[in-house]
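Marked as duplicate of an earlier ticket. Keeping the data here for the record.
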Amino acid sequence: MEEESWKTLISSACDGIYNGQTLDIKHLTPVLCYQYALLKKTPDINLEETSEVDHIIPQAKLEGNQMSPTSYKNALFNLQLLPKADNILKKDKTLNELTDSFLRQAISKYTGIKEDDFEKYSDVSKIEELKNERLAYLLDAFGEKRKTELSN
């Protein structure tokens, strides 16, 4: 795909809609995996463990919430891959409710969200700021980082 096509895909996926269709997690999981490959960030799992898609802002916080468009629940900016055990540990917790330091560090590493911002991004009213930060992170991965990897 051309760089501009990636930009359109990532921007649309961060809105949770592509070509007029609401996106589902199954559509975005390969994009998350490719992002990790581009950024050379492999999850800290053993070979027997699987990864699962997790919501940065829990689904329960977004369902029926008037501060957020419905499409944001499964939008690319609100998704990350976590090892299954970590995903179970996180469950419906917001970022500021996480006490396990390893999990906090892993989420920061794979999402590009600084731990200092966990408090801010636990507040649904800050969802547009989260979207903008993650969109910039993802556009960099699928823009400059992808271009660099393809030239190698």
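See parent ticket for discussion. The longest strand covers residues 51-55.
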